[in-house]
């Protein structure tokens, strides 16, 4: 039995995949501790995980309230200082060190943000894995490294001195020091945009809500009843364009459909709500999505993957962070429609809703990685970090590189191979 220490930050799309991964690791016989925001203690308990809160509920809400300003000019140094994120790193490191068992511990962190995992791996000599929940985390790694090395250098230097760590001699090597990098999305999704580096193992969407209760409020138990409603959600965070909910709700109303508005923070939505709009702080999406005509959402990876699994048509109002990239990847496969913020008008949203709601069930490309197997594959790769390393065979290396090629690129490779074989045969 190994000790698995998982560190993540953010909202549902960043944290619940780690809960699901922790549950899978625990099913494999490992001791698992999740270190994340106090808000997720209940999720960890239901999954049977030990839990360390890296903040309080009040601090979590304060940080969420601050995040929209990152889209409107607040600098990262100010954000870190105002929200005590350097102190949080120290707390995480010490909690990891207390639970570390030499030779029997694996550290797992959210890609790019879980610096405490790299600090602890460096200090303790433990193997580390970084887990990305969306492609943008890999695409933005160079920019993040620049921020850590320059914009946040003073604060990170204070943290390292407090932890007894010296200066980083080679930032590029240190930032890439995790033994394993995982991407929690399928290969077809990866090929629809900038490709992940070959070193990153892709395991498919984790669908973290598979472990949650599907009970619906009584008034929704009979869906559909009359025109099928539109589901509108901007996720569980507050980092949204200020016009998101207004455009989504008015567009749904103009389309002539009831709107189920799901948002934890009531102050983000129009007040009073227009007729035909029902507000819920949360709903079990696994049960709701197959029953609605379409969903209008922000482009978060958890929401879009759940909609894909349900076959629910999607209209995405994407702005900031990973969302435009996620939306473009789906649109390239003909699986969703999306609008950038300058085009968020009720008329355009309504027109896309009419288009999407009329198309019926949306089916991902053939051969999609099975979502229900993704946590098991990821957990197996993480557990294998405690085993002696085995070098890839030449065939393994070739297969991994081929996995990251598009269908057209594979066709060109196959044509060249056939040409060479024909030349030898001649």
Structure description:
- The protein is globular, with a radius of gyration of 23 Å.
- By secondary structure, it is α/β, with parallel strands linked by helices.
- Helices cover 44% and strands 13% of the residues.
- A seven-stranded parallel sheet has the order 3-2-1-4-5-6-7, sandwiched between helices. A six-stranded parallel sheet has the order 10-9-8-11-12-13, sandwiched between helices.
- α1 (12-27) crosses α17 (374-383) and α12 (244-254) crosses α16 (346-357).
- It has three domains: 3-205 and 376-386, 3-Layer(aba) Sandwich (Rossmann fold); 215-357, Glycogen Phosphorylase B (Rossmann fold); 391-425.
- It contains 19 helices and 13 strands.
- α12 (244-254) links the parallel β8 (230-233) and β9 (259-262).
- The chain starts with a strand and ends with a helix.
Features:
single chain, 426 residues, alpha/beta, Rossmann fold, 7-stranded parallel beta sheet, globular
CATH names the topology of the largest domain as Rossmann fold
Structural class: alpha/beta
* Largest beta sheet: strand ordering: 3-2-1-4-5-6-7
Helix count, per DSSP? 19
Low-pLDDT segments: none
Please summarize the sheet with the most strands. 7 strands, parallel
Amount of helix: 40-55%
Estimate the global geometry from the Cα principal axes: globular
CATH class of the largest domain: Alpha Beta
Task: Provide the number of structural domains.
Answer: 3
- CATH homologous superfamily title of the largest domain: Glycogen Phosphorylase B
Mean pLDDT over all positions: 88
Which radius of gyration do the C-alpha atoms yield? Answer: 23 Å
Termini gap: 58 Å
């Amino acid at each position: 039995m190994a000790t698995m220490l998982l560190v993540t930050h953010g909202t549902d799309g960043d944290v619940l995949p780690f809960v699901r991964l922790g549950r899978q690791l625990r099913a494999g016989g490992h001791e698992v501790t999740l270190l994340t925001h106090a808000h997720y203690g209940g999720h960890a308990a239901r999954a049977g995980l030990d839990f360390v809160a890296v903040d309080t509920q009040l601090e979590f809400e304060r940080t969420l309230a601050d995040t929209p300003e990152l889209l409107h000019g607040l600098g990262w140094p100010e954000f870190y200082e105002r929200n005590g994120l350097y102190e949080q790193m120290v707390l995480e490191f010490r909690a990891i060190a207390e639970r570390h068992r030499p030779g029997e511990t694996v550290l797992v962190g959210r890609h790019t943000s879980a610096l405490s995992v790299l600090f602890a791996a460096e200090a303790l000599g433990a193997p580390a894995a970084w887990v990305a929940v969306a492609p943008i985390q890999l695409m933005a790694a160079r920019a993040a490294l620049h921020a850590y090395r320059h914009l946040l250098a003073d604060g990170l230097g204070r943290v390292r001195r407090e932890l007894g760590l010296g200066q980083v001699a080679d930032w590029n090597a240190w930032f890439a020091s995790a033994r394993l990098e995982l991407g929690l999305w399928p290969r077809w999704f990866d090929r629809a945009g900038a490709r992940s580096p070959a070193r990153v193992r892709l395991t498919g969407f984790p669908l973290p809500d598979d472990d949650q209760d599907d009970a619906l409020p009584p008034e929704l138990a009979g869906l559909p009843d009359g025109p099928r409603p539109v589901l509108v959600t901007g996720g569980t965070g507050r980092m949204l364009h200020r016009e998101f909910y207004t455009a989504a709700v008015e567009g749904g109303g103009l389309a002539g459909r009831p709107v189920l508005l799901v948002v934890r923070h009531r102050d983000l939505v129009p007040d009073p709500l227009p007729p035909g709009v029902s507000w819920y702080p949360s709903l079990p999406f696994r049960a709701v999505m197959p029953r609605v005509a379409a969903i209008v959402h922000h482009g978060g990876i958890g929401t879009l993957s759940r909609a894909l699994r349900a076959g629910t048509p999607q209209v995405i109002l994407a702005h900031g962070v990973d969302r435009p990239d996620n939306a473009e990847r789906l649109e390239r496969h003909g699986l969703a429609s999306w609008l950038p913020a300058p085009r968020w008008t009720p008329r355009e949203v309504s027109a896309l809703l009419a288009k999407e709601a009329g198309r019926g069930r949306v089916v991902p490309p053939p051969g999609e990685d099975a979502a229900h197997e993704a946590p098991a594959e990821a957990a197996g790769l993480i557990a294998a970090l405690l085993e002696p390393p085995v070098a890839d065979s030449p065939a393994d290396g070739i297969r991994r590189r081929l996995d990251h090629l598009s269908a057209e690129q594979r066709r060109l490779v196959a044509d060249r191979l056939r040409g060479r074989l024909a030349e030898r045969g001649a």
